[in-house]
Protein: Sporulation initiation inhibitor protein Soj
Amino acid sequence: MGKVIAISNQKGGVGKTTTSINLASGLAHVGKKVLLIDFDSQGNATQGLNASQNNSQATIHSVLMEGVPIQQAIVPKMNPRIDIVPANINLAGADLDMDKMEAGKEELLKKAIAPIRDQYDYIIIDCPPSLGLLNTNALTAADSILIPVQCEYYALEGVTQLLITIRLVQRTSNRNLKIEGILLTMFDIRTRLSVEVSQDVRQTFGKLVYQNSIPRNVKLSEAPSRGMSIFEYDPKSTGAKAYAGLTEEVLKRNSKEA
Ligand code: ADP
Ligand code: MG
Structure:
């Protein structure tokens, strides 16, 4: 059964999509079978991997709200081979539409991916920047949550809020939800703030925090405009090295559990 990892933080711009794309790609590069589900109506992961297609392409919205089988929504990407379930602006209303549903509204994604879980080693969910029903669906479908934390003021407050949500999900719709890890992003060794926030987060969360932090690296922000992960766009960049290191850590943690 594939391991399902939700990349989640209710804050926008902390590196969720960048991490989703590059962790998915890093895992694919070492031969893992990976499905990336874009779960944000901004569709950044979809665009960043050039998986946006014509208007008739099924998206995660068609899967959740129109009952389209997930297999029909998968867009294959070559080099490295990743399957992508795209998202677009259609998903923007899904939180509200789901809320009107009677039972099982937290479990739509979990049910949707059940038939294909064993076809993948890893299923990565790029979550939206909110704590609404979409995020609850992701955390209900997931085995674990990977939390990107940007090295800036209020980083810890944001994580504390997220931990409350995680506990709520653990008490209600997914009691097996684990924390996969906490990832420091946009780290800039030259700024005191980055160093301080990083120390704070490491002190508070200990071993949950990955040893590799992701540096601020312009190559990471350029790669999506070419439809590439950092490993295709600039494999020698500091960003590529950091995400390769993260990939190794994720693999190592999971081999210990298995
Ligand atoms: P989120 O999905 O949490 O909103 P993104 O991954 O889209 O965050 O990142 C927000 C912006 O910051 C994007 O423009 C992205 O290209 C850029 N970015 C993310 N991580 C880095 C990094 N390590 N170095 C430089 N730019 C980054
Ligand atoms: Mg995003």
